[in-house]
User: Fold this.
Amino acid sequence: MKYDWKQAGEEWSEPWGTSDAQWNGTIFPRIRDWLPTGTILEIAPGFGRWTHFLKDYCDELWAVDKSSECIEACRQRFASAPHVRCYLNDGRSLSMIRDSSIDFIFSFDSFVHTNRDVVEAYVRELGTKLKVGGKGFIHHSNFGEYVSSPRERLPDALTKPLIKLQILDWAHHRNPGMTAELFRVLCEQNGLHCITQELVNWRGRRLIDCLSLFVRSDSAEENATKIIRNPNFMREAARIRRESRRQR
Ligand SMILES: C[S@@+](CC[C@H](N)C(=O)[O-])C[C@H]1O[C@@H](n2cnc3c(N)ncnc32)[C@H](O)[C@@H]1O
Assistant:
């Protein structure tokens, strides 16, 4: 089914109140050490919810999405920012980007849905597109950690009422084929190294999402990945929402 972009993705920031509050309270504090920078690559920007903020932290921003509707919307939205270049791709390759030319890779709220083979294809590309010393921040699924649990084998007729009663929580279309561990392994196989992985809950209690921060393997001493299990991500969102409402 075709997505109705009437709110340009702003609706997904509802737990934080606004995308502005989500950027300032949750995303920016996690990446601020690496910004501003020279060239940013954003994968799957949609209608530019995060491009809008990222564009002020770089000399050049490449935004690549597989949807022509999204790329057209980004071109219009950022028409007055010539350093933002928007490209349509085939959903897995980054041939329009020069090798070793990217300082910072960013993707939020998109890789959570993609299949393992697509994530793998991109990670392979990222290993060649990142500069030595470059960094990446990708929000992806960790739902695979839960798919072998007995509750995932319950029939829908049973899980739906339990979700309504808030006894179980919903998976929000997270991809069951991806985990933090698998993402880490794919990075290692493609010349990248995860520095930290923050496993976070998304609307429910389970840590079905992961925020991975990575570098090129040849650009840093390879310490073991720091894994943070954060069950308070949505509490953080609720606090940010309250604070931003008070300030308005
Ligand atoms: C849920 S939207 C999120 C958009 C944006 N990141 C945001 O947070 O507002 C998912 C986006 O991912 C894009 N997308 C999905 N699969 C993709 C792929 N394999 N390659 C590039 N873009 C993809 C879709 O076209 C859409 O723009």
Remarks:
- The mean pLDDT is 92.
